[in-house]
Structure formats: structure tokens, C-alpha cells
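Quick one - inputs below.
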Amino acid sequence: MTILDVKDLSVDFVTETGTLQALRKVNLAVPANRIVGVVGESGCGKSTLINTVLGLLAENGAVTSGEILFEGQSDLVHLDANGMRALRGQKIATVFQDPMGALNPVLSVGRQMRDIQYRSALSRKEKDARSIEMLRKVRIPDPERRLAQFPHEFSGGMKQRIAIAMALLMQPSLLIADEPTTALDATLEVAIIELLKDLQQQIGCSVLFISHHLGVIAELCDDMIVMYAGEVVEHGSTRDIFHNARHPYTKKLLACDPARLSRREPQLPTIPGTLPDLRDRPKGCIFQARCEFTDEACAEMPPDIPVGGAHVTRCWHAGKTTGARA
Amino acid sequence: MLQYALKRLGLSVVIVSVAMAMLFAMIYVIPGDPASVALGPRATPEMVQALRSRMGLDQPIWVQFARFYFSALRGDLGIEILSGRPVLGVVFEQLPFTLALIAGAISWSVLLGIPLGCVAAIRRGGFVDRVIGVLSVAVIAVPSFVIAIYSLLIFAVALQWLPAIGAGEPGNLGSQLKHLILPSLAIGVGWVGYIARMVRASMLETLEASHIRTARAFGLPESRITYSYALRIAILPTITLLGVGVGTMVSSAVFAEIVFARPGIGKLVYEAISVRNYPVVTGAVLVTTVFFVVVNAFADIIIAALDPRVRSSFS
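Output:
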């Protein structure tokens, strides 16, 4: 079953300097029990995507087309605020990037974990027992005592583990992890990734994992989505994309990953050019200005072209790029 | 928490001691010899000398300060010149009226200011927010004595809803509360504006914080997010503001007590100054200082009770 199915989703923001097309015709699917990575530069629409799924778009943002199917039925785009709130935290949980600020500084960890369970009929004691069990699962030592403590009494890595415990407390079917390891140092990052993988298997939920760290995506994710300037340019299994990238942007992105360089370069490679202005999107292919394959076909927006199995790419030249390894 | 409270109260003792030293220095440098002022222009030098040694004015300054300090600790603030009664008794007789007035002013500013600030923050940019904004600035800008006089004219003289002067019958709580409404409103109404502005600003800042986004992402009801997750943080600067504001309220109380002909510390000091009754002025200032310091200690203790980060930074 597909847990999250986003079809043709477009989101606009109305700003003082014009309408900003933050997402355009985004298609993606998160199957049950799979970890799907979303990779892309800052400003590519990763956060807008999450906020749209959560129903937490800023007031000036609106969905202009498309649908978001959750567990095959409810279209989240048309769900009202109460229906959406009933899903958040219960069925769809989120771990945010900044562990330092993600917890309320004046309420104890126990109080915050109890509040998340406000819809459950359990007694206060039973709720606390569940919180303790969850804290133990994320390997917080001495959880009974820690429950009464406040966020500032924990280290950054512990706070992120508490945030994960909070997210998994209600056994959601979808966990959205928004760069959960970006603010942590490398050793902690590995520990959190392993913890997430372990808990995902225990609980049996799907994960939408946002990151700009290709190594983490390769390590953790079954499938991956490459976003560029508000579009999903390539979507497929992590293996297919890493070994047989078909979109020119994906290829360049992979070529820029320092971890994948085969020899020491005096200068790290970059992608020439800049992101297009989303207030004035180019007609046709979004990557044409920075692409070496651009020709007259690219003046029209390419559809999502299947290139083998579930592997799709939004490029007219997907055929030409076959076999050219990144 | 208890540890923090004790530390904070200990600090208050130090602050009061410093304030007393400054007060003593002020008395010392006021021109004119207290003994000759007390005895009047026709006193002989021998009489002045005798009174000086009786008052201890011929002792070295540090002995005088030590006497002043330790007798104040014992509650002895000297004798009032005119009636010969102990100053502390005179001041304590008036203190409850002023405390009630300030408590009333704080109630107005808290009970109106905090909800108005919250509503303005939630409806930011909307019509309600703008109306609250304009009204807040208006009440901040108008001096409290103008509000005192106009509220007297409207509610006491024209509409005759509320009494105009006095503090109400002794022992009759209802009458005393009725007499409290207008003067406390006159002092507090500007603070309603201040607090509404302050709560709005810190509420807007807090609602943008990422932990509020987390709370929303966990589907908590918006009312709980606003009033228990955000307000608890947004209220902290307001408590400090109110603690400091009590000082300003005490000085506004002088106006209010005169305009509404209420007894109280403000009126006592005003009358004592006009007849150069220095022991009463000193005593009243000292009692007010202690009150101010204690209020601020409590403000800090309330903040520590609400914010665990403050508690642990002191332990």
C-alpha cells in the first residue's frame, strides 16, 4: 500500500514582489514500510513540501493544483483544519532540523510527551509509562528521572533523540524527518541514522527523510527523490539513482558530492549558474539554463518519463543520458 | 526553586541596605541642621547643642549610620516631629490604602492588558489588532492625572455611578472596593496599554519559535498552543516590566491620592514635604523602597517558577 501519494502538486506563495511558484507538478509516492529520501539544495521546495503535507503552509501559501492522498483515501489538500490536526502527531509525525529549539523550553519533557497523547484515553500514569518506554527505545539513560527534566538539561543529540521519541510515541504510519541530523556532529549523525533505521523496522512506519547529505540518503533510504527549484526531477530507488542517474541535474549533484570524488581535487566541483527565480519561472524545463543538453525541445516542460521500473525522470533527454555514469 | 527564592531574597536585603545608605547620605547632605530646624529660629545655641547630642548628631558619620541602620532594622524609624508618634506607625497606618491602590492598578493592567495583547497577536494585522494598537498608544500617551480628572467627571459627577472621593467606610469592603475603582483605573490604564503592546510583541516572537511549530506538527489544539505553550514564555518580560513599573505606580499614586482625596503614602509624603516633616519623609521613602525591592524579588521568583532555565542558572 502507498502511505503517501502526492500527485501533480503545485503550491504558490503570494509575496509583495509577485507570485512565487514554490512547487510545480510534484509527484512522489511513499510506499508502506519504506524510507524515502528527498534531496535537493536549499530553496528547492523541500520545506514547502513538508509543510503542505502537514497542512502547515504559511498564510500566503496555497495549493493551486494536485492532491495528497494519505493511506490511499483522505485527500489532505481538502481536509479541514480539525481533520488535519487529528492526523498530525497521531498518523503523521515530524522530526525537525533544529533539536535545540524544537522542544518547548519551559515545559518538562514528560509534560510535552504527555500532551502529545492528549487524544488517548489513558490515565496520566499510563501516558508517562508509555513516554518512559519510548525514551528507553531511543536510548535515553534513566528515563524515569529524565522525564521530569527540561530541554535545557539535555545535550543536542539527546534532544534530537527525545524529538524522535515524541514523533514515534503515537506509532504513526508516516514519519517526516526534516534534516534531523544536519545540526548534529558527524558521530551523532551516524548514531541517529542507525536509531531511525532500527525504530522504523520496530514500528513499521514509512519515513520521508529530507536531507542534503547524499551519504546519509545512500545509507538510509530505499527510494529517493531529487528536487530542483520546486520540481521533482528524478524519482526512483536509491540504487538506481546513485548508479544510473538520468537527469542532468542529478548527475551534476552526484558529481559534486565530495565523498564520491575519486581523487583529490584542488577545487571542489560546483554546478555553474544559479537557481532560477521562482517568481519568474522559465517556461519549459526548469534546469535548461544550467544544462549541457539544452535544445529546442526543452522550451516545453517535460513530463515524468519512465526510464525503467519505478525510475522516472523529468527530462526530454533521458534517452540520451542512458548509461552515462555520474 | 526554594534555593533560588532564598538567594533572591538575600539579594534583596543587600539592595535595601545599599538603598538605606543612599537615603542616609541624602539626609546628611540636605542643607540645614535637623536640630535647629526642629527647634525653630528662636532656639539658643545651647538648646541646639543639647538636642544635637540627644539626636546623636555630634557622633562620627559612621556611628550615625550604624544607629540609623540598626534602629530601622528594629522597626524604629524615629519620632514624628509634630505629633511625637513613632514614624513607622504613621507610615503603616497609610500603607494599606496605597497597597490596595497599586494592587488595583496591577489588576487592571494584567486583567485587561494580557488578554488584549494575546488577541492582538493572534489577529495580527487585522482590524481588532489595529484598534487595540491605537487604543494602547492612546492610553500610554495620556498622563494618569488627566485620566483621573476625566474619569471623575464622567463616572462620578455626570453618571454618578461611582464615588468621587475618599477611601470608603472603614470595615465595609464593598464600599472600599467601589472607592478603589476610579483611582486604580487612573493609575493602571496606561499600564494596560504598555502590557498589551509588550504581550503582543513577545507573543508574536514566541509564536514564530520552532518549538511552536513542533507543537502544531503534533496536532495540539491551537488554544493550548497559544495559552499554555506560547503565553507561558511570552509573559516573562511582562512580569519584569510590571515589577519595575510598581515604582512608577507609587509615584502616580501621589497624584491619584490627591485628586481623589484618598489617604495613603503618596498623600502622607506630599503633606510631610510641605511642612518639612523630614522623619516622616525618610520613613515613608524607606518603607516604599522595601516594598519596591520585595515586589521585584517576587517578580523574579515568579519568573523562576515559570522558566526552568532561570532556576538552573542560579543553582
